[in-house]
Specification:
Elements: H1 12-42, H2 49-68, H3 74-77, H4 80-104, H5 113-143, E1 149-154, H6 158-169, E2 175-181, E3 189-191, E4 194-198, H7 200-209, E5 214-217, H8 224-234, E6 240-243, E7 256-260, E8 263-267, H9 275-310, E9 316-322, E10 328-334, H10 341-348, H11 365-373, H12 380-385, E11 390-392, H13 399-406, E12 421-423, H14 425-428, H15 438-453, H16 457-469
Parallel strand pairs: 1-2, 1-5, 2-4, 5-6, 11-12
Antiparallel strand pairs: 3-4, 7-8, 9-10
Helix pairs in contact: 1-2, 1-5, 2-4, 4-5
């Protein structure tokens, strides 16, 4: 999963500097390694026009794709191991784009294959070196205290103490608490192990002589008049001011503050897809779904013939499953089991069919191979083009399994806030096939909900890429 977001608190100046450094460095890596590769291949620095165009386009695509992949965000730069996979996938997408451009413009023959391989390899090595250097910079800043967040809490009360204890427990946040201030403080002293440094007026003076990055106001929201007076005084400070909610520590997700009819509201849940995101997801499904259907039609014909030769019965199998917003849809699959009266009855009973197990006698020879490789899911491309499913999303479960697990797993139905997918984040992390225990299904749901809350085009492309490269023969796929 993606890196924690606590690194948001790193100095904005340092964020800007490092992001700008990497952007310039990435462009330079693409251009310089392209020239170096040509020098190695041709023993000359005089690049032909076609090569210059390739370098320019490569640099432009790299800058834009890396930006959309969030490779310049501090949260990702501070997690080099997670960043490696994101970097590799994005660079492969750049390469594929360049290959497509060369193919459709009929210019691929103008480039040396050796030069192309050298260029791609050297560029990736350059990206890695830049990020290794950026990691060293971040660690240096951490040691020198430049990444430390200095803050004060206004509110010497139970809520403020809970907040202070929470900040002290989070070692990764890099927070140094200066102390407490309170508009009703009679004198200085201690609140538990933390110093009380005076009133709000004392805080204004303190900020002039000490480095202070943020102030958090931890006061009862019900005392609105008192709260407004404190906030009015703090507005003179040239630093960030935050208002701590009274439900500190409660498992309530906070997305953002918004306004409805001019009244401020706290958004605890948002639509996973709306506006441009919804349009991008729809275009992705139509374009990639159509392309995959065209490319995979010969394979699907071969599979259909193999199914007919292997056992009697229809080629396709459809099952009622829950889709977007808990609406029932018919999900298509290649038939992988023997066609018997029992199977027909189970299919009519709203999906009340037991999950396949190891050495299941109901599974045909061809069906066993299809299930292990997930090729039985290919007909769901028709579901995608019918707008019932997406290429990527939480996998739809049989109706009986859906209702069974919804009773024992919190937020289970939250999976249905997006269309179900042919593949998903849970599947590429190994949670596919039989769910033999409550813990396995809980973990699958956890990954599904993470995907719903963190969707992006890059995330979808990453999952599609991993779908082709994760091991086909997983232990729980039969």
């Amino acid at each position: 999963m993606d890196a924690p977001q606590s690194s948001r608190r790193i100095s904005t100046d340092l964020q800007t500097f490092l992001a700008g450094f990497l952007r310039i460095g990435d462009v330079a890596a693409v251009v310089v390694t392209g020239i170096l590769a040509y020098r190695i291949r041709e023993l000359d620095f005089d690049l032909p026009g076609a090569y210059q165009v390739a370098l320019a386009l490569g640099a432009l695509l790299t800058l834009n794709y890396f930006h959309f992949a969030r490779l310049y965000r501090f949260a990702n730069l501070a997690a080099p191991i997670q960043q490696f996979g994101r970097l590799a996938v994005t660079w492969i997408i750049v390469i594929v784009t360049l290959i497509f451009v060369a193919y459709f413009t009929k210019t691929s023959e103008e480039y040396s294959r050796i030069w192309v391989v050298l260029w791609f390899s050297l560029s990736f090595a350059g990206f890695l070196c830049l990020r290794f250097f950026s990691t060293l910079l971040i660690r240096r800043w951490q040691k020198t205290g430049q990444l430390t967040l200095n803050l004060a809490i206004v509110g010497a009360n139970e809520l403020g103490l809970s907040l202070a204890n929470h900040l002290a427990e989070d070692k990764q946040a890099g927070v140094r608490l200066a102390g407490f201030f309170d508009d009703q403080a009679a004198d200085t002293g201690k609140l538990d192990a933390y110093p009380v440094l005076g009133t709000v007026e004392d805080l204004l003076k303190y900020s002039r002589d000490h480095k202070l990055d943020e102030v958090i106001v931890a006061m009862p929201w019900s005392e609105s008049e008192r709260l407004l007076k404190v906030l009015k005084k703090l507005r003179t400070l040239p630093i960030s001011i935050y208002l701590c909610p009274e439900i500190l520590g409660a498992p309530i997700p906070i997305h953002k503050f918004d306004r409805i009819a001019g009244w401020p509201m706290l958004a605890v849940q948002e639509r996973p897809l709306s506006g441009w995101d919804l349009l991008v997801k729809t275009i992705e499904d139509y374009i990639l779904g159509s392309l995959l259907l065209v490319l995979l039609t010969p394979l699907m014909i071969v599979i259909a013939i193999a199914i007919k030769l292997d056992s009697a019965g229809p080629i396709f199998f459809h099952q009622r499953r829950y889709g977007f917003n808990n609406n029932l849809i018919n999900v298509y699959k290649f038939r992988t089991m023997y066609h018997t009266e029992e199977s027909r009855t189970a299919a009519r009973a709203e999906g009340a069919v037991p999950q396949a197990k190891r050495n299941d006698p109901r599974v045909t020879r061809v069906g066993g191979f299809l299930r292990r490789t997930s090729l039985d899911e290919l007909p769901q491309l028709f579901n995608v083009l019918q707008r019932q499913m997406s290429l990527v999303g939480p996998r739809p479960h049989a109706v009986v399994h859906n209702e069974q697990y919804a009773k024992i797993i919190d937020d289970y139905f939250g999976r249905h806030r997006m269309k179900p997918g042919i593949t998903g984040w849970a599947q590429v992390n190994g949670f596919r096939g039989e769910t033999s225990s409550y813990e396995k299904m809980q973990k699958r749901v956890h990954y599904d909900l993470y995907y719903v809350d963190n969707w992006s085009l890059f995330f979808d492309l990453k999952i599609l890429f991993l779908t082709f490269f994760v091991p086909f023969m997983q232990e729980n796929a039969y």
